[in-house]
Amino acid sequence: MKKVAILSNYKDSFEVSSDVLSAYQELTHVFRKHDIELRRVSMHSFDTEKKLFRDYVDMDDSGQFRIFHESYNPDVIWNRSGDGYVYAYDLMEKAGIPVFPSAKIFAIDGDKYEMSLFLQKYQLKALLLKDFFESKTSREGLQNRVVLKPIRSFSGHGIEFYTQQELLNNKEKYFGLGSLYIVQDFKDFSKGIPGLTNGICDIRLVYIGGQFSHATMRIPAAGSLKSNVGSGGSELYLEKRQVPEMLFPLAEDVLRDLDLGNNSILSIDFGYVLDENRWYVFEINSSPGVYFGSSDPEQCRAFYDAYFLDVIKFFQSKYFS
């Protein structure tokens, strides 16, 4: 059986919510069904001299995930740590263990300011918070309503919405944190997407190995502007025919500019501004969530079949052929 290990960030325990647990169980079952062992490891337990992990997380017979204190040496690392762990790529290379996805996409994904510079022709203009506070000229390039985002964050955590004056009035709150946040224009994605929906949403396209895998529509919870599932948003699985056609060439342009080769997995999140008739890329993510934000069994099944099977096909063709 081939061995894939998801790089996680656990230390002394491994705990997940009941919703996420069901997705992890499904992912593990699907991998095992295709003769691939799927476990989780942490850099905290990597032995640099022996070039192996001192423990790992696996699903036991009851369907629960727990830490096994046994040495482990996977064939491939799937980096879903969320913390970057860029140094891990060098350590894994020395240990002879390939890492998916590439370090390049992880580096860009882990810094929203760098991401905004790299993708500036597709994204909203971004300022470091310190430049917003210190430069009136920089502020003049922004609209009155702005979005404040931590440079390193996931699932919508830490995002705040202000007017420029409100943010200036909160300068003391962010003392010493000016290089840890970006400020962007607020765009109104609430007027829907013609032919698809009338409400606020965004569209996520997921690519694996440079090839389109699947798409979802992400919808904020009532009273919220955040569509992230981790912030209470929900998802709808979209058939390829349901995705606005112009998003595919736009996504291909983004992939071409990123120049990641085929050792990549990423999601590209698009928002549509009806008043401008324009799509914006507001984020890329090298660890698209395996938990689907819906309780509908048919929707979940469609999502799992598209996502999980495409990942398995990628591993089989790139690493296990």
Write up what this structure looks like:
The protein has three domains: 2-100, Rossmann fold, CATH 3.40.50; 125-185, 2-Layer Sandwich (Dna Ligase, domain 1), CATH 3.30.1490.20; 202-318, ATP-grasp fold, B domain (D-amino Acid Aminotransferase, Chain A, domain 1, 2-Layer Sandwich), CATH 3.30.470.20. The protein contains nine helices and 17 strands. Helix 1 packs across helix 9. A hairpin with a 4-residue loop joins strand 16 and strand 17. The protein has a five-stranded antiparallel beta sheet. The chain has 321 residues and is α+β, with helices and mostly antiparallel strands. It has helices spanning 18-33, 87-95, 103-109, 112-118, 129-134, 136-139, 164-169, 247-258, 297-318; strands at 2-8, 36-42, 46-47, 52-53, 56-59, 65-68, 76-79, 99-100, 126-128, 145-150, 160-163, 181-185, 202-208, 211-219, 234-238, 265-273, 278-285. The longest helix has 22 residues, at 297-318.
C-alpha termini separation? 13 Å
Structural class: alpha+beta
CATH superfamily placement of the largest domain:
ATP-grasp fold, B domain
Helical percentage:
25-40%
Shape assignment: globular
Mean pLDDT: 89
Q: What is the helix tally? A: 9
For the record, what CATH class of the largest domain applies? Alpha Beta
Tell how many strands the DSSP assignment holds: 17
Named CATH architecture of the largest domain: 2-Layer Sandwich
Beta-strand content estimate: 25-35%
CATH third-tier fold name of the largest domain = D-amino Acid Aminotransferase, Chain A, domain 1
Query: Cα-atom Rg, whole angstroms?
Result: 20 Å
Number of individual domains? 3
Q: Outline the biggest β-sheet.
A: 5 strands, antiparallel
Stretches where pLDDT is under 50 for at least 5 consecutive residues are: none
What is the chain-wise order of helices and strands? EHEEEEEEHEHHEHHEEHEEEEHEEH
Looking across the biggest beta sheet, what order are the strands in?
15-14-13-16-17
